[in-house]
Every structure is written in C-alpha cells, then in structure tokens.
Amino acid sequence: MSKIYLGKISKTYAKQFEENFYAGGKESSSWYGGVKAGDYVFPIYNTSVSKLWRVKEFSNTPNAINSEGSVRFEVVKEYKEPVSIASTFARYKHFELDLNILNKLSKSTAKEKIGFYEITCSKNCPSADQIDFNDLRSIYIALENPYQSISYKEGDIRILIDSKESLKIKDIQIYEVSKWKTYDLLLKLYEQKNKPDQRYSLKELLDFAVTDQAIKKEKFLNAAIDEIGKNGFFTLTSPIGLYDNLLVGRKRTASGKKGEDESEDEILIEDEAELTKEEFDEYKEFVDLLKFSPNLILYGPQEQAKLILHKK
Hints:
The protein has helices spanning 14-19, 99-104, 184-193, 202-212, 215-231, 239-247, 277-290, 301-311, and strands at residues 4-8, 21-22, 40-45, 48-59, 70-84, 116-118, 139-143, 157-161, 169-176, 179-182, 233-236. It is an alpha+beta fold.
C-alpha cells in the first residue's frame, strides 16, 4: 500500500517544485525519508500545498543542484487554492496531529538530513488523491461540560481543562466512536515539553507571557481564558498556535541563553546572525504564517546541496 509523505521544497531551488523533482542524491540518501516508487508526497512550497505528487522514479543523472541524482514525481493533482499547512492541512481529520513533524519542517533538520516525513493516517483515511481538505477536525480548549453546547465531530481534539478557576490541563483527548479518549500523541508531547512541576495553568502562562513581553502569546491566552469563562470552551484554528502558545509551556526569551536543565529543542530562538540571506527569507515565510519565535533556522533540500558544494 502506498504511503503518504510531507516534504518541504525550498524557494531557493524553486526549479524542484516547478519541474517536480527533489535533488537528494542517490536513492539510498537519508534526505528521501524512506519514500519509494508509488508513494504520495504533498510538497510544502511557500508554506502551503498546491500539488500532490506520486514518486515515479529515482534517477542517477546529475543535475544543477546535485551531481548524484534525484527523485522524480508525477503530478497527480493540483489544488486551485493552495492548502495552508498551519490552518488547514494540519487539521485534516484523518491525519494524526503530529506537531513534532510540523515543528521539524519549520526549522533546522540539517543534523537529521531528512527532507520527507511520513504522515500517519487513520484506518478510514481515503487514498491521497481522494482527500478532501474541507473535511477538518476542530480543536478546543474546553471544560468537560461547557456552558454552551458543542456538536463534536469524529476526530476532534480537546485540551481538557479542570475548571474555569484553576485553568489547568487535565487531559488531551480525541473524539472517536462518539466518545472522548486520551490522545496519547499530544499528551506525550505535552509531558515531554513540560516537567511535572512546570505544567502551568493558563493563568500562570499568561502571567509569564506578560513578564516575557510575548505579545502574541498574551493575546492568545487572554482570548482563551475569556472564552472559557463565558462559554466553557475556546476554539482554535491553528494547531501550530496550540503548540506554540500552550503545549510547549513557557517560551524562552530572546536572549538565547540556555539553562543547565534545558534541552536544545526547548530553545526556540536562534541567533539571527547565523542565518544566510536565503535561510532568513526561507524561515520568514513560516514565521509570518505560523507565528513562531522570530529566529528559527529553516533547512530543506538546499542544505544537502550546500553540503556537496562544501566538499568540493
């Protein structure tokens, strides 16, 4: 059975998107992430998806980007309106909401040397060419019994809050077979990003946002707290907003200073001086759309080409 992948195509090498190939080198290259002939790929270009590819063949023929070859695609489908990665693609109800993959695709993957990531789908997911991106899940931050009724749909996600007074995360759930159950994928992500003594309430996170002058996060949390107080729930349109403003806990400051107990992936802000102009332009697309911290370094297939050039 064919698998489905996401792959990020750099604007620096727009020819790859226009001519439907990816210059990752030999078929065994790690940059391909395991894609095989017949697999489907949604290429991310300019922060959205406007094509569906299917892997046609691997070629050892040198090209202007990589002397060791490329993978070639056939275009299965083109979308009249580009599908936004942040607000639409990531909310398709039959895709697992893997925010780690979206995060990787919006910053450095140079160490991993992977340009494509497999998407995990539900058992009921149609074939890639039949996917309807109007069929989206809703995402809520909500009390167990909201004051206003909600018509939950299969695949919806809920960040369950214990009460409107304490505003602490009690569980992260998915709506399946007409009932809520723990959504391990996001709950484990939340627990990984936040130590037990640092799983702050929404009010505590708001206080930190004010102290840290994180204006967008402050607005997000103010809106969430206000809506929970009035209606018992808050509806999100962007899974990335959920990740950035809530699941990662307190965001680090722009000083770039890392404490002794902080891991690399907790430091979301890099030194802008380390970016080339091309890298800066590339990551800025995602910053504007996803509202991430202002200095993420993006890498894509162009990094593979740079490595080759550096060897010469």
